[in-house]
Amino acid sequence: MLSRFMSGSIRNLEREYNCTVRLLDDTEYTCTIQRDAKGQYLFDLICHHLNLLEKDYFGIRYVDPDKQRHWLEVTKSIPKQMKSQPPFTMCLRVKFYPPDPAALKEEITRYLVFLQIKRDLYHGRLLCKTSDAAMLAAHILQAEIGDYDPGKHPEGYSSKFQFFPKHSEKLERRIADIHKTELIGQTPETSELNFLQKAQSLETYGVDPHPCKDVSGNPAFLAFTPFGFVVLQGNKRVHFLKWHEVTKLKFEGKTFHIYANQKEDKKIILTYFAPTPEACKHLWKCGVENQAFYKLEKSSQVRTVSSSNLFFKGSRFRYSGRVAKEVMEQSAKIKREPPEIHRAGLVPSRSCPSITHGPRLSSVPRTRRRAVHISIMEGLESLRDSAHSTPVRSVSHGDSFMTRSRSQAADVGGSTSIISDEAYSPSDSVLPTPVAEHRSVEHAAAAAANGASGSIQEEKESEAGTPTAGEPGGGEVDGGGRATPRAGAPLSEVEQANKFVLSVLRLLLVTVGLLFALLLLLIVLTESDLDVAFLSDIRQTPEFEQFHSEYFCPLRRWFACRLRWAGGLLIEEERAGAEEEGAPAE
């Protein structure tokens, strides 16, 4: 009995995995999950730990061994989604940014969104003009260190903290001036609310950038926001499609298509190319989820979406969860005492000035917490890393049918608007798609200009993957005479024709297979003893009687003979084997 109990315990231990989730304040939550545990179990566990009720805006993100980021699906088993070996490491992030953060019901939700947007600002996702950046940084200072105190905050105190990938002394002085004069007396709650309202008004609010290239090979960042689909190139937003204008999202391989209808029945098809097929599928799934969350009125309207027009081809995906309108209606019904929030201010060290990505949150006191500090020197390293991200210098855009000029691109998907003083270039480490392996020679030149020294191994890999100017498939030639390949170049006419032929053949094969299966099903039904009116009518027709006597009965007798013959051979082989072994035959 004891041995059975112990063996059962061992089996139970083998069915359990350790899982660590990094929260928005850079603390860690560790738990044990069963082998068949689904994503919803882990997500509910974290939300209970944080005392979070407005949880539909958040999600759990993980990175596979190929450095591709994914959102954990709540309806599927966790171990089956994770391609890595346990223990699993994930992180809690804002998945759907609230259209109006000020309308959130509870302060704990606003605080977590505040931490997420502060991360976006630090890593370059929330790019804005200098004046807006100074105001946002001043609100962070006021929320986390309080009012300006000459005794505690010496001259140049704002330079001790890293709010952005990079900033100048002039910007630091402007941040300090706003903090000293305009924000005195504001509580942390008020400063966080003002920060959210300011961030919500920016063009890049809610942007989770996906690096892609258009049909001309120009780098671009695609993103889905609470208000629609955006395309960022350089320091401009070149396309903006509202969610009610987007009719379909489709992908095939590395190619991503956006179909939209604008006013006066103007139809648009935008085409982009992702670095890898996995990145393109992740981009498509993010678009399907965002469109369902922000566009639909009820979750009952959610339908399964296919990535292809043909039912037997492509991926199928269905968003599982409530939509934005339902979330707001459910939030209005929350009636409880506001949970306690323990904020920890920014604590710069005299020897090594540092800043935490977010204050420590302790809704549950018995939590193992790990404070993560990033020094200014590490921030500069992050800045140098961000130079390797895809450079964006062109605002021209083309779709799958034509190449538009700059003036034409401005007319499609909304007017072009300037989002910042610099080109949009978030850090590689926060992009949902790995782009470090797709660096070109231009990337290395940009990194060198910013003071980043590339390794010899990286230079060898870059040269090995770069064709010469005379080779087919080569891209643009830089100043040094070396060709830069276009990772997202459109397919040739021959390749497109081959793909079309394969699609037609696949359709024919499936059609023939379905017809054959239906014919077999009909024969089985007519030869059965089922007493159904339409089957009786079929049996009485002369054509069926002729088919039954001339084809079906001989074919059935032939199969029966073959089966008896095969059975006789097996019996003889068994007897022969038994005689050889000296055993009596049965």
UniProtKB/TrEMBL annotation:
GO terms for cellular component: adherens junction; cytoskeleton. Pfam families: FA, FERM_C, FERM_M, FERM_N. One of its GO terms (biological process) is actomyosin structure organization. Residues 348-369, 385-432, 444-488 are annotated as: Disordered. Residues 402-419 have a biased composition (Polar residues). Keywords: Membrane, Transmembrane, Transmembrane helix. The chain crosses the membrane at residues 500-525. This is FERM domain-containing protein 5-like. It comes from Gadus morhua. It comes from the Eukaryota. Residues 471-482 have a biased composition (Gly residues). SUPFAM superfamilies: PH domain-like, Second domain of FERM, Ubiquitin-like.
